[in-house]
TrEMBL record:
Matching InterPro entries: Uncharacterised_CoxE (IPR008912)
Pfam families, alphabetized: VWA_CoxE
Protein name: VWA domain-containing protein
Species for this entry: Marinobacter xestospongiae
Superkingdom classification of source: Bacteria
Amino acid sequence: MLIDFFLEIRRAKVPASLREFLDLLEALKNRLAFADMEEFYYLSRLCLVKDERHFDKFDRAFDAYFKGIENLDELLEALIPEDWLRAEFEKQLSDEEKARIDSLGGLEELIEAFKQRMEEQKERHQGGNKWIGTGGTSPFGANGYNPEGFRIGQKDGRQGRAVKVWEKRQFRDLDDGITLGIRNIKVALRRLRKFARQGAADQLDLDDTIASTARNAGYLDLKMVPERHNAVKVLIFFDVGGSMDPHVRVCEELFSAARLEFKHMEYFYFHNFIYESVWTNNIRRMNETTDTWDILHKYSPDYKVIFVGDATMAPYEVSHPGGSIEHWNEEAGATWMQRVTDHFRKVVWLNPLPESYWGQGGSLGMTRQLVSDHMYPLTIDGLESAMRHLSK
């Protein structure tokens, strides 16, 4: 039943064995996962992946094979009622219809309206313009259209206009094992170099050894020195999930190149904008976070700070307390970014979107202003410009 899925996992270079595949089938036979895609995801990963380094490869293969399937309906069709197999109707609107839909006027108004409709609504709705439902023009629900609103029960974003997302979202860590296609990135990163010899003396200094031996009447006198390495200290913050999903590959190439180039490098993840906490493991991001204050206290101002993200989100996420799409932030994102730029001497933002998409207003314009216009495209030329600025 799942042979093609197993082969897809193997094609993704996940070293899953036939024995592990048979374990998965046995687990399914015993109903350890039934009619739930999330349960099947975790069960299959548990059975087929034995090293967390391969989680990202597994996730990509899983997504490619099961793309568009919310439940295990197609695999267990005989056991599930037919109406479970029908997707929700998605209403298609013309540009003229979209232009006639007005937003509710701001984040606070959206929150109050949502609370009111949660109290009043008693049944399921579809295709409407007010209640929480699907396929309509209401600000609340899934698979419809509204200039801004709350996305509820929809797997992926489509318009990029949601102010809040009412669901648990799974992000992936970046793979630092990417080796192809990073040579040009490494060359660009080398513009940010400051060599030093620190640590244990474990390398032979040939010139000093020859000179010292000559001074010592020919008796061998070995001279050792510490390894020469790039002494620049770097902090990198990666935006993950949502609109950044199409840019995972280039972010992984940057991540891999930076890990090889900088001896002193720390990395963190965030979603859309920086707030009171960040994280280093996307699987446990809800439980294991690092306070942004701790970062400001731990790392000295001479660290070079690089943010990587498209900076495209609702402006409230930058300007308002409570504007985060996933949680209630007590202070605005702009407040936290200001603290970062006040503490560290050099901060840049790398954007994977072409410069022609940036415009001047909205969240992207606000972000550019917060980093003093030191936003650069995530291209070789953009990287070189960013590294020149950081090295000054």
